[in-house]
Inverse folding.
């Protein structure tokens, strides 16, 4: 990875800088008839999306998917979809897809979302769905999406969407797998705070092999660091 893929800003300017960066990436592909974007949940992207929605992009051309989701009721305050919908989706004219389905089991939701992505997206030569842009975060344990350290989903090579039991949280998550994350045309990873910056320094220093996000080191990954 070259330094040109690393963008550093102050913690105070992080949200505005990130929103502007994402906007510029979207403007470069807005000519496409349909643009498929995968968004991460959590607290980091919400204020960024609040800024992004004010930009006059052709939002009707965008299809938004979630990178991962907690196994909760769709109306739960812990639902990534509910939180992103409240701050972003409801205010723009895009199409968006929830992983969570009422009256569905965990396996049914995984299967449904897997088929949705497979049928809606163009695929690579290896028949893996290819997002135009994937926007991710990172935890202090180096997880991204819901690919946590020492969990089974880290080893998935075939399925596009998987359930993943997180022992340290004693809960299930639904997540895109490495093959899909790696097949995206471009990725933006949002890293906010001194603790996460320290993890990132380990990763780029070659000392972070234990962190799941290390697998996404590539020329197609952009890192925005706010600390």
């Amino acid at each position: 990875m070259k330094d040109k893929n690393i963008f550093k800003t102050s913690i105070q300017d992080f949200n505005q800088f990130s929103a502007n960066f994402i906007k510029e990436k979207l403007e470069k592909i807005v000519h496409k008839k349909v643009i498929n974007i995968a968004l991460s949940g959590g607290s980091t992207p919400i204020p960024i999306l609040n800024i992004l929605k004010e930009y006059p992009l052709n939002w009707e051309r965008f299809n938004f998917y979630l990178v991962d989701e907690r196994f909760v009721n769709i109306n739960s305050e812990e639902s990534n979809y509910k939180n992103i919908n409240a701050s972003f989706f409801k205010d723009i004219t895009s199409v968006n897809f929830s992983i969570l389905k009422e009256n569905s089991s965990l396996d049914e939701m995984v299967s449904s979302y897997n088929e949705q992505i497979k049928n809606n997206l163009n695929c690579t030569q290896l028949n893996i769905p290819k997002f135009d842009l994937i926007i991710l975060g990172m935890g202090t344990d180096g997880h991204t999406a819901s690919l946590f350290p020492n969990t089974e989903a880290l080893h998935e090579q075939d399925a596009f969407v998987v359930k993943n039991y997180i022992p340290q949280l004693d809960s299930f998550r639904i997540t895109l797998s490495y093959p899909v994350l790696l097949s995206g045309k471009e990725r933006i990873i949002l890293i906010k705070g001194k603790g996460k910056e320290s993890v990132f320094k380990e990763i780029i220093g070659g000392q972070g092999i234990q962190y799941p996000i290390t697998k996404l080191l590539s020329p197609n990954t952009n890192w925005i660091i706010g600390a």
